[in-house]
Fold this protein.
Amino acid sequence: MKMKTYTPKVGDIQRKWHLIDAEGRVLGRLASEVAFLLQGKLKTYYSPNVDVGDFVVVVNASGIRVTGDKLKKKVYFRHSGYPGGIKRATLEEMNRKKPAWVVEHAVGGMLPKNKLGQRMVRRLHVYPGSWHPHKAQVK
């Protein structure tokens, strides 16, 4: 008797919606949980080469916690492309200006760096406050 490996088809994938409250949660632990759900690793038919993940809505992103001195010592860099065009921002500044971006950046770093990862990150919705427009989807 030959054993066959099951590969999920597009029609077999059932996507759920998850609502996660980030208030008081540690950033890295929250990001790894969200990345796990986006990849679909909790599903019995998980396959690394097929996008089987769920939708994730993260609310209260401005209320995340970090351990140690990361608020002042963790620095995000970007470059304008011009000589001397490097810009720096600490986690404290970014959390004040764009709290949703901080969570998206942390989760994006934990997803695959390919087209599947790009598709997964599109199913992530992060909001700085408790309001979100996905009340109909999230039960």
In short: Residues 24 and 64 are 5 Å apart (CA to CA). The domain at 10-65+99-126 is CATH 3.90.1180.10 (Ribosomal Protein L13p; Chain: A;). Strands lie at 17-21, 55-59, 75-79, 86-90, 124-126. Residues 27-39 form the longest helix (13 residues).
